[in-house]
Design a protein that fits this description.
Elements lengths: L2 H31 L9 H11 L3 H15 L1 E2 L1 H5 L12 H22 L1 E2 L1 H14 L4 E8 L15 E8 L2 E5 L1 H4 L1 E4 L4 E4 L10 H7 E3 L3 E2 L2 E2 L2 H6 L2 E2 L1 H5 L4 E3 L4 E4 L4 E7 L7 E4 L5 E3 L1 E6 L2 E7 L7 E6 L2 E10 L1
Helix pairs in contact: 1-3, 2-6, 3-6, 5-6
Pfam family, one: Transglut_core
InterPro entries: CAP/Cytokinesis_protein, Papain-like_cys_pep_sf, Transglutaminase-like
Protein name: Transglutaminase
Length: 326
């Protein structure tokens, strides 16, 4: 075997082993934090416990993420019925900043004590605890992409918030609100479902579902067009690293008789792959081909294809596209 190939394989195996080791270490953090009390008298007491139990910046950042995700519930009623924005007067910039800080401190304590909140409370509490354990963290406000109707939206809105936290010299992305669970429309309630994928998320996945108000991350410009017009990806795509290679647009302009070519990385013929027709009936993909570490298949456009196409692998939804008839 050529030396270059041996070196490549060696490096690849080292990367795989390192990623596995890191994932295992963070999983151990989650297990330890899950045994913490649900209630601490103060945020300082919680921070002291985290600093006592963990040494590395990454472990501390993950412990803050895990504790909030395990113990703070999303307040869907407050989301549906938001309080009026609290205004205030001030006579100087210093007074303005003091009052803004007081409002933020009140939000942190309310979220911590009531064990519920919306994204502003989750992110403010995360930043506060991260600071207390010696980390630098920021709150980022922006747009989120969660529904089929978000594919091909024309405008950006500021409807969500998340955090960045500095680990070593790298800013990582954290969405602790999404880490704690999700809203199940069929059940009409929030579902607790710890999602560690929203800690140190791959930016490619993260910005398929988030768009910062600044339009940038760590100095790099984020494509607004890719966010608005890209496909809608689901948690399973991030968990299993199902990279969507094609179509690269979430908007498919087609006519009956066309064939849509789909290519997804890290999928094989042994996986059960299907999509839903307009009656929400599963249609198994025909003649899939393994290609470049993934699976390629075609979806025939006919009268049974509806306004959206959602691809499933096993029982999990992976990606959705919007169909526009030419």
């Amino acid at each position: 075997m050529p030396i270059k190939k041996i070196v490549f394989i060696f490096l690849l195996l080292n990367i795989i082993f390192l990623n596995f080791t890191i994932a295992q270490k963070l999983s151990d953090v989650d297990k330890m934090v899950a045994k913490y009390p649900k209630n601490f008298t103060t945020t300082e007491k919680l921070a002291e416990r985290i600093e006592k139990d963990f040494n590395s910046e990454e472990e501390k950042a993950r412990a803050v993420f895990s504790w909030i995700a395990f113990n703070i519930k999303y307040d869907y009623n407050s989301f549906l019925n938001p309080q009026r924005v609290q205004g205030f007067s001030y006579s100087s910039e210093a007074e303005k900043q003091r009052k803004i800080k007081q409002l933020n401190d009140n939000l942190i304590q309310k979220t911590f004590n009531s064990k519920k909140g919306v994204c502003e409370g989750f992110t403010a509490l995360y930043q506060h605890l991260a600071t207390q354990v010696g980390l630098k963290s920021e709150v980022v406000k922006g747009d989120s992409k969660t529904r089929l109707a978000d594919i091909g939206r024309k405008t950006i809105s500021s409807n969500h918030a998340w955090n960045t936290v500095l680990i070593g010299r790298k800013w990582i992305l954290v969405d602790v609100t999404w880490g704690q669970g999700y809203y199940d429309s069929s059940k009409g309630r929030m579902v607790d479902d710890f999602a560690p994928i929203y800690f140190d998320t791959d930016p490619d996945y993260f910005f398929a579902k988030h768009y910062p108000d600044s339009g940038t991350f760590d100095g790099d410009k984020i494509s607004k067009s890719d966010f608005l017009n890209g496909p809608l990806i689901y948690n399973s795509a991030i968990v299993e690293d199902y990279k969507i290679k094609s179509p690269d647009s979430g908007i498919l302009e087609v006519k009956n008789g066309d064939k849509i070519s789909v290519e997804i990385k890290n999928v094989s013929k042994s996986d059960q792959v299907f999509y839903l027709n307009k009656k929400n009936q599963p249609v198994k993909v025909q003649n899939p081909k393994e290609k470049r570490g993934g699976l390629e298949f075609q979806i025939a456009v006919d009268a049974n294809v509806g306004e959206y196409i959602t691809v499933f692998i096993g029982n999990a939804s992976v990606v959705s596209f919007k169909v526009i008839r030419a």
